[in-house]
Amino acid sequence: MPEVILGLSLLLLFVGLGLPRGFWTVTLSHATVTMCYATVVIQARLQDFDLSLEEAARDLGCTPVEAFCKVTLPNIAPAVAAAWMLAFTLSLDDLVIASFTSGPGATTLPMRLYSQVRLGVNPEINAVSTILVGVVATGVIAAWLIQRRRR
Q: Taking the model in full, what pTM does it have?
């Protein structure tokens, strides 16, 4: 579905519910949009998960919540981390939905960068871009080192 249609639909939903546009409407919108991507990633990991491990934890006296926290969550933690990174990246990239659902007091980084680029490129934009590239590079290197250490 095009982002413009989705952004307009979410805007109409929030106006229909009488919610003031701001931080929470942007957060709910981005969570709604990225939840399907995260679900696919985590569901792919859960298909290979052995349910007998969780059943064994329940037989040994764990409550369902304890069994999930001690057995299931550690097994699917890489998928949860990957889903979070994917959702964060998609949310960071989403300018259209944020511009529809944000109010006068809430602005996101992409909205601020877009408004500054329209007026001309300045050193702040270059600095933010450098920081984002550095953070991503650090994350990739850290993930590579962790994977290498586990082998």
A: 0.77
Question: How many whole angstroms separate alpha carbon 58 and alpha carbon 68?
Answer: 10
From CA 114, how far away is CA 27, in angstroms rounded?
19
Give the residue numbers spanning the domain of 140.
122-151
Task: Tell me how far apart the alpha carbons of residues 140 and 18 are, in angstroms, rounded to a whole number.
Answer: 42
Q: DSSP letter for 20, please.
A: P
The CATH number covering residue 43 comes to 1.10.3720.10
Residue 122's CB is within 10 A of a number of other CB atoms, namely: 10
Asked if residues 113 and 95 have their Cβ atoms less than 8 Å apart, the reply is no
pLDDT tens column, 43-102: 999 998 888 999 999 999 999 999 999 999 999 998 999 999 899 888 888 888 888 888
Please tell me whether residues 86 and 12 are part of one structural domain. yes
Residue 132 and residue 58 share a domain: no
| C-alpha–C-alpha distance, residues 43 and 116, integer Å | 39
CB atoms within 10 A of CB 87: 20
Establish how many alpha carbons lie within 13 A of residue 46's alpha carbon, considering only the half-sphere containing its beta carbon: 12
User: 102: which residues sit within 8 A by CB, 6+ positions away?
Assistant: 21, 22, 25, 26, 108, 111
Q: How many domains does the chain have?
A: 2
